[in-house]
Predict the 3D structure of the following.
Amino acid sequence: MLDKFNRKINYLRISVTDRCNLRCVYCMPEEGIQLMNHNEILRYEEIETVVKEAAALGINKVRLTGGEPLTRKNIESLIEKISNINEIEHLSLTTNGTLLADKAENLKKAGLNSINISLDTLDKERYEKITRGGNIKDVVDGIESAIDNKFLIKLNMVVLKDLNIDELENMQKFCNDRNIKLQLINHFNLNAQKQDNYKFDRPPKCSACNRIRLLSNGVLKPCLHSDMEYKINFENISDSLKQTILAKPEKGLVCSSKQMIEIGG
């Protein structure tokens, strides 16, 4: 389906939880966030139904995010449900990698195609600082397990001027040695005006945006950099999706109502 600015919207990002086992400085406030009640979170069957309706409108790519999606119990069952929808050509997941080592094999069997793994530094102490306590070995083990299970892998590195910008060359070598792609992400603030002249790979230019977002509580967002939100009407999911697509702004502005951890990036 095309939006009002003739962009083909074929990509749905789904936040399956607002919970995360890390507290990264660019994603979550140090004091944390007010977590949703379990009864507010969409059931897997509801997410599956939304994806089927989205597929009928031309969505062919789905990415599962969080929070940290691997903290959601039995995430493999959702992956299997979505991978069995014929129109979905690519199903991916973004994770901090800390829980991946023990799950990669089952994720592959369930039908997951690719994984983006967040890793902003190769330095143990810096990693602890950026994540507020994480163990980098858990992530490296997760990366190796994803490689062993033959996933397509991207390494997401948020470039932080005062923390890790000196590591770009080492991070590229780390990725080259493992035949995985490095994706550099500009550090940005949702409360600041969306820019289209970022230095690194992400976020994309607004003119190339092809996505909408489904939050874990059933709210649809047409744009990451916007406060526009539409609660899904489960009696007419298709209309909710169409409304969201047609509401996409030509350019992003600011998002003041949500933290990054609640949207999934």
The longest strand covers residues 152-159. The chain has a mean pLDDT of 94. Residues 11-237+247-263 form a domain with the TIM Barrel fold (CATH 3.20.20.70).
